[in-house]
Amino acid sequence: MPDSQPQPPHSSSSSSGSSGSSSSSGSSGSPGSSGRVGDPAALLLCGARLTDGRTVDVRLSGGRIEAVGTAGSLAAGGARDCGMRVDLSGYLLLPAPAEPHAHGDTALSAEDDGPASYEPQDVQRRATEAALLQLGHGATALRAHVRVGDVQGLGALGAVLQARRSLRGLTELTTVAMPRILTGVAGAEGLAMLRDALKMGASVVGGCPDLDPDPTGYVETVLEVASEHGCPVDLHTDAADPARLARIVAMAGGLRPGVTLGPCGGLGRLPAETARRTADQLAAAGVTVVCLPQGGCGGTDRRDTAPVRLLRAAGVRVAAGSGALRDLSNPVGRGDPLEAAYLLASRYGLRPEDSYDAVSSSARSAMGLPEVRVEAGFPAELLALRGDRLAGALSLAYSRIVVHRGRVVARTSAVREYCNSAAAAELGLPRQGRGELS
């Protein structure tokens, strides 16, 4: 019998945007899928394993999870048949990750000759390619921090917004407007650019107060503009100055729809008691911290990661992002949320469940997105990973199937082949691959 009963239709529309990504589309090419007569918007995920150990079928429709039942219970005999089946035997099914800290305007620019090009067509191409790369890793929503003002003006933002439109139906891309200077005479142009950026379509107010001659004034201006427009705030700060951070937190507390700070690597360099006191202040103000375990995004001299265990113990919501993606700040960045989760577990001692939460549920919450669970009624934003336990899936994370708005939008398949081994056969060791090498 179904564990989660079918829900009434929701207002959310199913995706009807562009065809699939370079990895795959939801209409063909999915493992174990076969076309069936029925509702073309429906998708049945068969034989998936959940983190609690159950093996289930999951029916998706209208961009949401319609029903979850024991394996085989939804395959036939229901109120209506499904339009598509995907065999997820051998896969772990999870809420999809989200990327709360990307840099679409500079991504994939490390190998350019000279500074990154801010020609709109170059920015759009890089931002689109980076978003698809991260979608292939599993991130069905991204928050891109985009510089405005200075030499790039609003051109880079316009290009990323164009990339957002072209990606509709594949992934959700939101933009953070990042002016460099907001105070004094020099800040007047930055403030005008920030207001224009919000009119253009940026949905989050951001920036780096550490770079302004008056960091406190910068934050005051950001919060004022955000309050006027009802926008969330997402600021870059190293958080190495506890007094400055305390002022930011005091100003930010209570702002709705919320304030996010990152990467806050400087917190890890503070004395233990000072860091604990600062963590308590962040928790009391309801500020979210987005850490970057794969490396910083502001220069190679700052590679520290925020003290995630200390922050979580104080009650701070901690999410994890990827940061720089193969730009001058991190020329080898992968943009993989599962690598961020792996590092939180392996290097910083979080449980695998808490590590994955940082790149999924907590990341979505930081971005103002609805919660996702593998239960009826929740958004169909899902990631299937080869494996049967979360720890093992995070360790390898080879094969991935990504579901956005109820359809498969990307697939990564890994094949491993071995020479014939009698010892492996005798021991009954698991094999993944098409066959054996001769």
Please, could you describe this protein's structure?
This protein is an alpha/beta fold and 438 residues long. The protein contains 12 helices and 20 strands. The chain has an 8-stranded parallel sheet with strand order 8-9-10-11-12-13-14-15. Strands 1-5-4-3-6-2 form a 6-stranded mixed sheet, with no helix packed on it. Strand 8, helix 1 and strand 9 (141-148) form a beta-alpha-beta unit. Helix 1 crosses helix 2. The chain is globular, with a radius of gyration of 22 Å.
What is the secondary structure topology, with strand pairs?
Elements: E1 2-4, E2 34-35, E3 43-49, E4 55-61, E5 64-70, E6 84-87, E7 91-95, E8 99-102, H1 120-137, E9 141-148, H2 155-166, E10 172-179, H3 184-200, E11 204-207, H4 215-229, E12 233-237, H5 242-252, E13 259-263, H6 272-285, E14 288-291, H7 308-314, E15 318-320, H8 337-346, H9 352-359, H10 361-366, E16 382-386, H11 390-396, E17 400-404, E18 407-412, E19 418-419, H12 422-427, E20 436-437
Parallel strand pairs: 3-6, 8-9, 9-10, 10-11, 11-12, 12-13, 13-14, 14-15, 19-20
Antiparallel strand pairs: 1-5, 2-6, 3-4, 4-5, 7-16, 16-17, 17-18
Helix pairs in contact: 1-2, 4-5, 5-6, 8-9
